[in-house]
Amino acid sequence: MRNLLNPKWLLLLNTLPLVLLAALCYGEFTVVQSLIPPQSLELWRWFGLTLAVLGVSTLGYAVVQIRRGESVGKVYSIVALLAYSAFLLLYLKYDNQILPREVPRWMVPTELLLYVATFVMPTLAHALFTLVVQFTPPGRTHGAGINFLLAFVGPLAWYILLLVPFSAVQSGHTSWLWDAALTASFSLGVLVFLFFLVRGAYILSLKRAEDAEFNFIWKLLVGLLLPLMGLLVNNGFFWGSSGGGGQHREEGVFGNFNDPWFYILAVLNGMMLCIPDQPKRWWRLTVFLGRSVLLSYTLYFFIVFLPYLPLSILGIILIGLGFLMLTPLILLVIHVRELGADLEYLEGFFSRRWLRAGLVAGALTLPLIITGRYVHNRWVLHEALAYRYNPDYGRTYSLDAQALASTLNIIKQHKEQQSGFSLGSHVPFLSTYFNWLVLDNLTLSDDKIASLEQVFLGSAPVPADFEQRNFTANTASEARPALAALTSRSHYDPRQQAWVSWLDLKVANTDTSLRAGEYTTTLELPAGCWVGSYYLDINGRREPGILAEKKSAAWVYAQIVNETQVKDPGLLAYDEAGRVGLRVYPVVQQVARTSGIQLLHKEPVVLTVDGRRITLGDSTARPLLTPVTTSGQEEVTYVNAAAKQRLPLVRRTPYYHFLLDVSTAGGKPKAAYARRIDRVFAQEAANPHARFTLVDAYATPVKTPAEWPGEAARHQSRGGFYLDGALRQLLFEAWQHPGPEYPIIVVVTDDFSKAELSSAYPENDQFYVLAADGSLAAHSLRQNSRAAMPVAAYPAQPRQVRAWPGTARPRAYLPDNGKADIVLNQAQLAVPQPGAGGSRWHTGLLLHGYQQWQAFHPEATDEQRVPFLRASFRAGIMTPLTAYLALENDAQKAALNRKQNQVMNANAALDIDESSDDVPTNVPIDEEVWLLLAAGLLLALGQLRRTMPG
């Protein structure tokens, strides 16, 4: 421990943490500064200046001592303890004024108090340890017993003080004087208690060779018995912590330490520390390396309990378990001392440089093992997400289902709420490291977890009503704002050769007694119509919408709606069905709100908004008769209705494609499938053009139709019935290779409800399900795929479709429905570059074409999502990945920018929170959740101060 007197430690334990603290606080300040009142800004300046003075003074002292070649002195240690403790206490006193209630807490993911406590604590710990070393010089006789006795004088004094009625103590004194005296006495008592406690443990470690028997018993108690006792107490072994059904809850008082490895490492660590010294150098080297490996385990629990050390004095007074909270502190002293003795002995046989390298390598072993495990978890999870949401249809997947199950269990465990007085199911620091490395500081919603478990693990599907419960709960209220007036403004822009129209909506409450309601509506846009801008009138001014990443915009909107202080957001975004959804909040009593949407369209269009029809553009103008193609490479073509009517009609030949459920749950009745298909589709299945695909978690095509019964019988089932993936892969192949034939899809399963479900199919948007009883039901490929529709007759007469650009070498087939369509002229599309599209309308056509191409090439999502978002931002054209958000103040805009940067740097399939984009959610704890472990003392003192009478 004497090495801590080296002033270079001040650079690591003071300068670096304070620089990080300043950077984090400045990042939070830049977001909320516009909401902070002048008196709070003054406090920011004073505390920032004070922290700068403390940090620069410590840095200057360290530099001077390093240049002089001198160690840290007693005066510095005492001054540092008092100065930084006073800083923490003053910050605690003014915490509510530094970040007043006017600042919404969702804008500051973690309390600044936790930042301050976390990054100042290393300085206090270092000053305490150096003070102990300085007052315990080697070569002198020191008594450990007197130090332990003096240490517990503090808890005893506080116990006596707490027996005295507060009213009697406060009599004749002002409230502020009582608060100051209470805080100062508690702080000094804690410092004295910890000083003498650490000094006593340090003295015992110095006497390791004088009494071997006592030394062994002491190390056995502190190194093995107390750590095991602490784990058992934390995990509820003595009072029970079982959940419903008798299952053990994965949580603890100070975190989740239920993993068997915590117990295994505790035993190994205790055994290593208890091994007596041996004169054999190789044996001693082996023990040294083992202790080095386990140093990170001891150091981990020291860091975890460091913020709670001041609370141990209360734990001793109240329930006597404070001794267990002190174990990591004393254990670290013993562990470091044992390593120091080993190092000193082995330097007579080995190079000091190599011994220190072994010490560092050993200390990094456990962190590297954990990192490697988390990297594997990340790879498995991202592979599963890619296969489920952004698959590469030309690649064969085979995932480690067991590793995925373990990863999903950890994610679910981290999402559990705390119960009782427990701090929850998180593993301190490790949970945060997992969330950062595996989840990019985001999360995975329960819906996606259930979907992955159903696909890869074959678990039961989510109930059919689960997906709709949020939406129905949100629309159940009868009294809600409605459209009061709808007007439009249109003009033809000759530069774009397109119409620029504005829809102006005035909304008001149908029930004028409603204090604050939310207006929601959706509208369907025809092909070739893009959203180019948005506004919302806020406090008498017209606030233009910000085009932002969709998930970030929806999250910010939800947080503002959940505020107790009513603000004025408006959100415009595409929903999953491709419709444009508008949300405005709040619509207060009789006050009407005005919002507007700019639309860019090539031809006049007729829209329906809340049941009202409105025409945009001049419907009497000369109609567009020819297709419109993007300039340059002509990647995308807008085929208007008139031009499509001129395309030749063709009637393609259907063939049957059977998707057979061979999942772990549905694979048993494989033999019955043959009889069922022969009974209903004997002729169609015997056709040489028929195709068969075996579907479980993966889709496995059968090479020839005649081989499918044998292939199905030999197939080893893996996971659940992932029908959605098989359908998407089938449609991708049909889109990629358009020809004179098209598939009629027949799903063969005993239980369609267990299928995992979420076009290049112009003739029909249906597929068929052949059930166990031989019944046939039709389902839509486009929407509500689980709902069955009656089958009048089959096979249905093939519909005629339009061949683009002609029958000679068709590149696409379009439905003959009298509506415009957008087609791709190239097999490969790139993200539109700046200026590539020409006019805004043509850029919108390029963006839509790329989005249409990406729907069939989801493997490009992660790589090209950010460039696609930026292209949307540049053009101001809303896409399914972006949204327009109107905000009231600069702080909300800064918070949106921060959240957007976080989401854009993460995996596209990860979520911000549990919500869908349609439902506001409660404020989640953001990525700095581990800092909740770092302010035990300050939060306890704050609560104590607030509850004091007077």
Helix vs. strand class: alpha+beta
Residue ranges: pLDDT <50 for 5 or more in a row? 165-173, 241-248, 418-422, 464-477, 916-950
**What is the CATH topology descriptor of one domain?**
Immunoglobulin-like
Strand order of the largest sheet: 17-16-15-18-19-20
Shape estimate: globular
Number of alpha- plus pi-helical segments: 28
Overall helicity: 40-55%
Strand content: 15-25%
**DSSP strand tally:** 24
- CATH top level assignment of one domain: Mainly Beta
Q: How far from one another are the termini?
A: 46 Å
Question: What CATH architecture of one domain do you see?
Answer: Sandwich
Largest sheet: 6 strands, mixed
Radius of gyration: 34 Å
Overall pLDDT score: 81
Layout: helices, strands, pairs:
Layout (H helix, E strand, L loop, with lengths): L7 H25 L5 H31 L5 H20 L1 H4 L13 H23 L9 H8 L1 H11 L2 H5 L4 H32 L5 H23 L25 H15 L6 H25 L3 H10 L3 H25 L5 H38 L11 H15 L14 H10 L6 H12 L8 H9 L6 E13 L4 E12 L7 E7 L5 E10 L2 E4 L1 E4 H12 L8 E5 L5 E8 L5 E9 L3 E5 L2 E5 L11 E2 L6 E4 L1 H5 L3 E3 L1 E9 L8 H17 L4 E5 L3 E3 L6 H7 L8 H14 L4 E8 L17 E5 L5 E5 L19 E5 L7 E4 L5 E4 L15 H16 L5 H15 L6 E5 L3 H15 L31 H12 L3
Parallel strand pairs: 15-16, 15-18, 18-19
Antiparallel strand pairs: 1-2, 2-9, 3-8, 4-5, 4-9, 6-24, 7-8, 7-24, 10-11, 12-13, 13-23, 14-21, 16-17, 19-20, 21-22
Helix pairs in contact: 1-2, 1-5, 2-3, 3-5, 3-28, 5-9, 6-9, 7-9, 7-13, 9-13, 9-14, 10-11, 10-14, 11-12, 12-14, 12-15, 13-14, 15-16, 15-17, 16-18, 20-27, 25-26
